[in-house]
Write a structure and sequence with these properties.
Length: about 210
């Protein structure tokens, strides 16, 4: 389980979270939505332990991350980037599966933005971690590959009961994919639902987000 307990986060004078609480259950796919500046990326950075905060955050399991920026090593090949974090992965098979056949020996710096993103997601999935945390992972990925990634993540969850947290701007992505949707606004939870109707919830969130404009 992931737990934020009384978490306060500031960047200098800028307060992003005050006494923030959130629990994320094992085996669930949680989508986190919210307007720009609502604190989504900060939440993920605190989970990854790459920014400081006050309060308590527990992250039960070893986690795999997909950050908004790809965090690949540019002067290594695609294959080396994957094998560095997942040494036993069959990099060639994974690349073939997600439309990157023949890319193994290419350097990251020779790839387009969307291709880099795919490699970053492939690398995170290759780790086969009990906890997968992703920040807008599919924003530059083509629709067919995105469907494949989502199918793979759902299957992994089915088989291994792993936990997934996905930050997204896409209401469709959240409603199709997640078991639970949390909407952040100004560092607070403005909406939190499980067992929703996949169509009805889109209207509900859309109206909530547009009211705040
Ligand atoms: P989101 O991912 O929802 O767009 P962020 O978590 O990136 O939001 O940012 C939350 C708030 O914190 C915003 O108001 C943003 O301007 C501010 N912020 C983010 N990073 C920094 C930083 N390094 N220094 C100062 N303020 C920051």
């Amino acid at each position: 389980m992931i737990e934020f307990k009384s978490v306060t986060k500031k960047y200098g004078d800028k307060v992003v979270f005050t006494d923030f609480d959130l629990e994320i259950k094992d085996g669930e796919i949680t989508a986190i939505l919210g307007e720009n500046g609502s604190g989504k990326t900060t939440l993920l950075k605190m989970l990854a332990g790459i920014t400081d905060y006050e309060g308590k955050i527990s992250v039960g399991d070893r986690a795999a991350f997909v950050f908004q920026e790809d965090r690949l090593i540019k002067n290594l090949t695609v294959e080396r980037n994957i094998l560095l974090v997942a040494p036993t992965a069959d990099a060639t098979a994974l690349l073939n599966e997600y439309g990157l056949s023949g890319y193994g020996k290419r350097y990251i710096k020779e790839l387009s933005g969307g291709e880099r993103r795919k490699v970053a997601i492939i690398r995170a999935l290759a780790v086969s971690s009990p906890l997968l945390i992703m920040d807008e992972p599919f924003s530059s990925v083509d629709v067919a590959t995105k469907q494949k990634f989502m199918g793979k993540i759902l299957k992994e969850r089915e088989n291994k009961k792993n936990t997934v947290v996905i930050i997204t701007h896409d209401i469709f992505e959240a409603s199709d994919f997640a078991d639970r949707i949390v909407v952040l606004s100004g560092g607070k939870i403005a909406f939190d639902k499980r067992d929703f109707d996949r169509v009805g919830i889109r209207e509900e969130i859309y109206s909530l987000l547009s009211k705040r404009r």
